[in-house]
Design a protein that fits this description.
Blueprint: H1 5-20, H2 24-40, H3 43-64
Helix pairs in contact: 1-2, 1-3, 2-3
Length: 68
């Protein structure tokens, strides 16, 4: 894996925080970074990166909205 798995989780968390705060530009930045970084990964690493990003995004989004 080229990037640490935590980097993908951090990008997911930052994207969620930005959207909850209404900052679409920052959210798009973090989504774009994730997409470009994930494109460099291969095989199972792509899947692991996607899971880390999406999981962190969901968890942060729900927590910040008071749903979880």
């Amino acid at each position: 894996m080229l990037n640490h798995i935590e980097s993908y989780a951090e990008a997911g968390e930052k994207k969620a925080r930005a959207y909850v705060h209404g900052d679409a530009a920052t959210a798009i930045f973090h989504k774009r970074w994730y997409s470009e970084a994930r494109a460099l990964e291969t095989g199972a690493d792509k899947d692991a990166a996607q899971e880390a990003f999406l999981s962190a995004y969901r968890e942060t989004s729900l927590r910040m909205r008071g749903i979880a």
